Amino acid sequence: MSMSMSLSVDEAGRALADPAAYADDARLHAALALLRREAPVHRVESPGYNPFWAITRHADVMEVERDNTLFVNAPRPLLTTAEFDAIRREQRATGRELRTLVHMDDPQHRVVRAIGADWFRPKAMRALEPRVRELARRYVDRMVEHGGACDFVTQIGVHYPLYVILSLLGLPESDFPRMLKLTQELFGGADEELRRGAGVQEQIATLMDFFAYFRALTESRRATPTDDLASAIANARVDGEPLSDVDTASYYVIIATAGHDTTSATIAGGLHALIDHPDQLDRLRDDPGLLPAAAEEMIRWVTPVKGFMRTATADTHIAGVPIAEGESVLLSYPSANRDEDVFADPFRFDVGRDPNRHLAFGFGVHFCLGAALARMETRAFFAELLPRLDSIELAGDPELSATTFVGGLKHLPIRYTLT
């Protein structure tokens, strides 16, 4: 990986607020490497955004994640434009804010997170594993049906984890295409191909469409409970009271979107990495026992969640740099996951990497609720694909989505022979 691009530190910092940078791996990682080396805690002032501090080293990201009372999620958990920040402030003031687990802090976060936690514990994952394997087989079979060539992302990658998570929620298959489109519009708001429109109001409209869908689902599950995660959320009680319509819908949104978009990005990006590193593909096919380590490396390599924000509740320091009360920091996971101080040869894709202390699922109290499911889906897909794969190559240029939050490949044209 060449790091020879000529960037100033300020230009590197502004790349973190530029969705196009995340669609250009070379540009992004050149910027992040420069920041880690010269300004690991760097104040970013970028047009259209409120200022923030970029945190790019693994150790510093960990320090912030560990102290969830000094650094809190509210009121700015995501890097969004100043215009969007203002709209969210107005929604919060009037009680209309969609608040997912991402937006909450303890003690509320702990109580609300517990509602869905049992559905992602090891016992539940073991019960779900046969279904996940069955779906993995179905989508590898679908690759065969495509006749040896496909756009892996649009024809396979986005559908398999979507089917898993929406089945867990208990949504009808007829609604899956709608959920896929809404998710792509939500996370692809900065991408010309994926977004609904260029303005903030179109992003708000996407959230409102999610809200309307899940409000109807809540009413249905409260009237007629069923044995699925949607019913568990709809009928949950906190301090003896059901969740508000806003909080119920917010819970569904985070499960239904993050529960599949991040995994599809990992699987597609992992396949791309294997194509680009045929020695690692051969190594993995020769030793299937490496699959758990390979899945972790794919997750590190892709890092689908690009960053979360935290806000300081008191004056403090990070790596000796003063951070004032009320100032926000951006935790850059792609940077932490390429930190030369933590990962040997971090720009080498290594299916046997051990240890692999990546932070793609976050750390601490906000560690990803669905991490075990994402790992299982990734392992299951490649466990089904690799024994049947005779050859594979790119059939065009892969394309990454423009984003500052969640993203990965949006196109991966491939040719292959499968049995």
Contiguous low-pLDDT stretches (5 residues minimum) are: none
Give me the side-by-side strand order of the main sheet.
1-2-10-7-3
- Count of individual domains: 1
The total count of helices amounts to 16
Q: What percent of the residues sit in helical stretches (DSSP H or I)?
A: 40-55%
CATH superfamily: Cytochrome P450
State the total count of DSSP E strands.
14
Strand content: 5-15%
Helix and strand sequence: HHEEHEHHHEHHHHHEEHHHEEEEHHEEEE
Shape: globular
Q: The CATH topology, please?
A: Cytochrome p450
The secondary-structure class comes to alpha+beta
Average pLDDT value? 93
* Highest-level CATH class: Mainly Alpha
For the CA atoms, what is the radius of gyration?
Answer: 21 Å
Distance between the termini: 34 Å
Q: Which architecture would the CATH scheme give at its second level?
A: Orthogonal Bundle
Largest sheet: 5 strands, mixed
GO biological process, one term: cholesterol catabolic process
Keywords: Heme, Iron, Metal-binding, Monooxygenase, Oxidoreductase
GO molecular function: cholest-4-en-3-one 26-monooxygenase activity; heme binding; iron ion binding; steroid hydroxylase activity
Organism: Streptosporangium becharense
Gist?
Pfam families: p450. The protein is of the alpha+beta class and 419 residues long.
